[in-house]
Automatic annotation (TrEMBL):
GO terms for molecular function: acyltransferase activity, transferring groups other than amino-acyl groups. Residues 1-143 form the N-acetyltransferase domain. Pfam families: Acetyltransf_1. This is GNAT family N-acetyltransferase.
Length: 166
């Protein structure tokens, strides 16, 4: 397996697999070509024998250069449970930290329990929302009418446990 920066030529390979990788959900509109064209330096793909097994699309915020944002991540169903997502995220964290970022954010759908569990295990915390369902803080209409989201944030700064007493 190898990890590399995403390239323009990867768009069709990725976009033609999106709906299949998401179990038939219509996801193609979530990843327009512009993300690959404009965020190549912080977006990555993992391949195994020329087959795409995962990708992450992310960027440093132009409005707040201390913040990075993960827009989209995908893992080939044949490669799940092999830490592909974790590997992609950790690679992204290192890259944006080198660019001066101290925080990473992302969002997911409240119905995507797999994503919520993954982000929690990766050390993200959920930001308070305007309602709570099954213990999950929800931001109503975050991405438009009826498009509720869970907002995650993760600090990239080294934790200091010096406040703990022996």
């Amino acid at each position: 397996m190898r990890i590399r920066n995403i390239q323009d030529k990867d768009f069709l390979r990725i976009s033609t697999n999106l709906n299949t990788w998401w179990g038939g959900r219509d996801m193609i509109d979530m990843l327009p070509r512009l993300f690959i064209l404009h965020f190549k330096d912080t977006s990555y793909i993992i391949e195994d024998n020329e087959e795409t097994i995962g990708f992450v699309i992310g960027f440093v915020s132009p409005s707040n250069p201390k913040q990075a944002y993960i827009h989209f991540v995908g893992v080939n169903p044949k490669a799940r449970l092999k830490n592909i997502g974790r590997t992609l995220y950790e690679h992204f964290f290192r890259a944006v930290k080198e660019k001066g970022c101290t925080e990473v954010g992302c969002v997911t759908s409240p119905v995507n329990a797999t994503s919520i569990n993954f982000h929690t295990k990766m050390g993200f915390t959920m930001k308070d929302g305007d309602m709570v369902i099954d213990g999950i803080p929800i931001h109503q209409n975050y991405d438009g009418i009826g498009q509720d989201r869970v907002i995650f944030v993760k600090s990239l700064e080294a934790r200091s446990d010096t406040h703990l007493k022996n």
